[in-house]
């Protein structure tokens, strides 16, 4: 049987081409609006919005001031600010005529203005104003539709901002949760060596300083796996000083995954859980294994202990964020992984009473929007 290459599909008539142009123009305005309603974003979006409506001039405002004007006759900015305040007060789309926009200039095309309030989460955050030499029902309806679309983009911007603020709040909570569990024991251990082994006490103090500096740093939501592992090693040195021969650590890391970008403080809480909940319940030697391996397009991290294990139902509650459980950061890390990489990249916990615990996380080697900043 012969296969013949078909002709490339084409847009049919003028209606199809007009639809394509509209969607393309809206797509050009979308990235700016996803940043929220600011002077910079309004300036970048306004020319595309004016093209959507096909009007001589367009203004974007907040509830009282002009953020951007695109097109001719920008001497009407003063009118635009006044109209924005009126629309914000009334909450309705209004049409201003020549008596509202009297400028005394011959040839001015901005003789009518359709002013539509931009409503986000039941709040009027600004207005979109379309200026033309005449108004019509079709232009009013088009302005309303474009304004509703703008509001939708701004709602998505607020949602993105809310997720970012939530992630930052979770990270602050994680820092606060780690410190009480660890700082007291670390300082007590260091103090115990001051007289018997001053050199070791000094080295441990330096490790403690480096660990806390990393844990409470203020910049960036992400780091490299190499930096995260350095912090984990400092933590384990301090815990080995505390537990002595009871704590045995195995670390196996594939060099090629060291540059992989991971959420800041994604590994250390899991290791702390292994020490706290695994080794604290056994009289024998506790063993912790940390593995980082290369797997196709992902880095797979595993933290395993031979401790007493846990009830799977308690683990489920911890991953759901139950604050009544004494599980350092498990739900926090799970949520941040899902936020960064999607729901398919949450923690996997294998455990049962008397069987130890193994926590597995997968991190993409590359993920859009995830970088060290």
From TrEMBL:
Keywords from the UniProt entry: Kinase, Transferase
Superkingdom classification of source: Bacteria
Molecular functions per Gene Ontology: kinase activity
Location of the Signal transduction histidine kinase internal region domain: 169-247
Domain Histidine kinase/HSP90-like ATPase: 265-365
InterPro entries tied to this protein: Bact_2-comp_sensor_kinase (IPR050640), GAF (IPR003018), HATPase_C_sf (IPR036890), HATPase_dom (IPR003594), Sig_transdc_His_kin_internal (IPR010559)
GAF domain boundaries: 44-155
Pfam family for this entry, one: GAF
PANTHER family from the UniProt entry: SENSOR HISTIDINE KINASE YPDA (PTHR34220:SF7)
Name recorded for this polypeptide: Histidine kinase
Higher taxonomy: Bacteria, Bacillati, Actinomycetota, Actinomycetes, Propionibacteriales
